[in-house]
Design brief:
The protein has 432 residues and is α/β, with parallel strands linked by helices. It has a domain at 83-104 and 220-395: Rossmann fold (3-Layer(aba) Sandwich), CATH 3.40.50.1100. The protein contains 20 helices and 13 strands. Helix 5 packs parallel to helix 6, helix 6 (138-147) runs parallel beside helix 7 (166-173) and helix 16 (335-349) packs across helix 18 (388-395). It is globular. The structure holds pyridoxal-5'-phosphate. Pyridoxal-5'-phosphate binds next to helix 12. GO terms for molecular function: threonine synthase activity.
Length: 432
């Protein structure tokens, strides 16, 4: 499979090159030249396949002979070796729980897949690869965990000071070894700007082999299709395809769902549920894309003012606004609505949501009020304990802390602080 740059001024590349480069030289996101179609029979008979078979079948055309099948099967198996259940919450709403992985968030899937692909590709390199990532919360932990002790790979993570939860922070600042965490005195967009400048810096890229592990990387984006298929496998009423609601920030997760839909996955409608960062809800009502400075919310992994992956969604709909608007809605949910939802769903259904999942639940419920014949699921993108600082005061109860979290809470913080100054970052990277 070849991947072209969405800015159309860089050569097409292989999966390996797209994974290593992250972003194209013209700063465009890579996009596959062909969207592989899966036959209707595959979706109809999906119960007959194991999760490993489903995942392998979906990802194989994107990689073809660049990774031998046996190794790719192994990578897929390791990527998905935890539960991804679809659980009923209320009569017409289900929760796709994506938080049973090592860092308790959906980003484990993409990070685990990518780290293993990159590990394979750099195995015989003499030059070290440096993975540079900006995180608004969960990416950092997932990437740090996925890449921890992968040979030949250094990881540098930038995160906004004071804007990630304490559990999130601990997950990325306590590993050490090949993982460096930098606490930036700014917001997520500042972090992302620094990363973008580093990738565009010719001189830096001559001295270092830099790559990204943000959701723009194809090796993180593509495997996120897996769990939409697993949800379909668990979906009972196959005659009524689900409305799928995805709590969205950088729009990589929902974009993977739309990609699976483009390959034939039955879907009634997509909802991108946003917090107060509502560039896409505004775009869908005005047709004007106006990036904004991110504002801080209690669903901080979605505090994004210029969602990178949205261009891929436009490409999937061939830049036709009306076909896009028919298949995708987007709404903005306030912190107040988010808190009320956590409380109500806990009291009425004994189901504990994290703030991101709550944004999704609320948006889906509202949609189903207007479309009462439909049913749907939302993606529960993180375990509520990751956001206990928000959730506990709302439910007036303590959330039991899982063993894995308790272990890291007492560990020493190994991060270093930095102003959002590109020259400082560059000096750090060159001295690593
Ligand atoms: C990253 C993240 C999101 C947003 O996902 P995108 O792919 O950036 O849209 C939502 N919820 C949680 C918990 C996250 O970590």
């Amino acid at each position: 499979m070849k991947y072209y740059s969405l800015n159309k001024s860089a050569p097409s590349v292989s999966f390996k090159e797209a994974t290593i480069k992250g972003l194209a030289p013209d700063k465009g996101l890579y996009f596959p030249e062909i969207i592989p179609a899966q036959p209707a029979a595959f979706f109809k008979d999906i119960q007959n396949y194991s999760n490993e078979e489903i995942a392998f079948r979906i990802i194989e055309p994107y990689i073809a002979d660049e990774i031998p099948n046996e190794i790719l099967k192994q990578i897929v198996t390791e990527t998905i070796n935890f539960d991804i259940p679809l659980k009923p919450v209320s009569d017409n709403v289900f929760s796709l729980e994506l938080y049973h992985g090592p860092t308790l968030a959906f980003k484990d899937i993409g990070a685990r897949f990518m780290s293993r692909c990159l590990g394979y590709f750099v195995k015989n390199n003499d030059k070290k690869v440096t993975v540079l990532v900006a995180t608004s919360g969960d990416t950092g932990g997932a990437v740090a965990n996925g890449f921890f002790n992968v040979d030949g790979v250094e990881v540098v993570i930038l995160y906004p000071s004071g804007k990630v939860s304490s559990v999130q922070e601990k997950q990325l600042v306590t590993l050490g070894n090949n993982i460096s965490a930098i606490e930036i005195n700014g917001n997520f967009d500042d972090c992302q700007q620094l990363v973008k400048r580093a990738f565009a810096d010719k001189q830096l890229n001559e001295s270092l082999f830099l790559t990204s592990a943000n959701s723009i990387n194809v090796a993180r984006w593509l495997p996120q299709q897996f769990y939409y298929l697993f949800a379909w496998k668990q979906w009972i009423d196959k005659n009524t395809p689900p409305v799928i609601c995805v709590p969205s920030g950088n729009f990589g997760n929902i974009c993977a769902g739309i990609l699976a839909y483009a390959s034939g996955l039955p879907v009634q409608h997509f909802i991108a549920a946003c917090n107060s960062n509502k560039v896409i809800p505004d775009f869908l009502s005005t047709q004007i894309y106006q990036p904004k400075k991110a504002v801080a919310t209690i669903s901080n992994a979605m505090d994004v003012g210029d969602p990178s992956n949205f261009v891929r969604i436009l490409e999937l709909f061939h830049h036709k606004f009306h076909s896009l608007a028919k298949m995708l809605s987007s709404v903005s949910i306030s912190d107040e609505e988010t808190r009320t939802t956590i409380s109500q769903v806990y009291n009425e259904h004994k189901y504990l949501l994290d703030p991101h999942g709550a944004v999704g639940y609320f948006a889906l419920k509202n949609y189903l009020k207007i479309h009462p014949d439909n049913k749907g699921y939302f993606l529960e993108t993180a375990h509520p304990v990751k956001f206990f600082d928000v959730v506990e005061p709302v439910i007036h109860e303590q959330i039991p802390i899982p063993e894995s979290v308790r272990n890291i809470l007492g560990k020493e913080k190994l991060s270093i602080s930095m102003e959002p100054d590109y020259e400082d970052l560059k000096a750090f990277l060159l001295n690593k």
